Amino acid sequence: MENCVFCKIIKGEISSNIVYQDDDFVIFPDLNPKAKLHYLAVPRKHFALLSEAGYDEEILIGRILKKVSTLSKTLGLENGYRIIINQKGEKGNDAGQEVMHLHIHILGGEKLN
């Protein structure tokens, strides 16, 4: 997508401190953290909602979750972490999805309530 901030980060048009990347996704710190450690895992392929995911995207989301578990020590998340996917609804945005490119929040580094 032309105006998507995450697509621009993935293309290198906006700089970010990418802590992990492969052919399918990137992980970088959230610019507005909600925890001591707050990362975003973002698929390279642009799609906004889980409801838009086909089989390949479902596999990709599973790969991302598994990779987060293997990177937990590297990311400073040895004591645990929380994973969140915000999703805009058909009638509103109660979840607060701000960027319409599916992304997974990874929060940790402190006790979360």
Largest sheet: 5 strands, antiparallel
Question: What is the name of the CATH superfamily?
Answer: HIT-like
Which fold name fills CATH's third level, the topology? HIT family, subunit A
Mean pLDDT: 96
Which quaternary structure do these chains form?
single chain
Strand content: 15-25%
Number of domains: 1
For the largest sheet, list the strands in their spatial order. Answer: 1-2-3-5-4
Shape: globular
Question: How far apart are the termini?
Answer: 35 Å
CATH architecture: 2-Layer Sandwich
Based on DSSP secondary structure assignment, what is the total number of beta strands? 5
CATH class term: Alpha Beta
Secondary-structure-based class equals alpha+beta
Low-confidence stretches: none
Can you walk through the features of this model?
The chain has 113 residues and is an alpha+beta fold. The chain has one domain: HIT family, subunit A (2-Layer Sandwich), CATH 3.30.428. 21% of the residues lie in helices and 20% in strands. The chain has 2 helices and 5 strands, in the order αβββαββ. It has helices at 5-11, 55-71, and strands at residues 20-21, 25-29, 37-43, 81-84, 104-108. Strands 1-2-3-5-4 form a 5-stranded antiparallel beta sheet, covered by helices on one side. A hairpin with a 3-residue loop joins β1 and β2 (25-29). The longest helix is centred in the middle third of the chain and has 17 residues, at 55-71. 14% of the residues are buried.
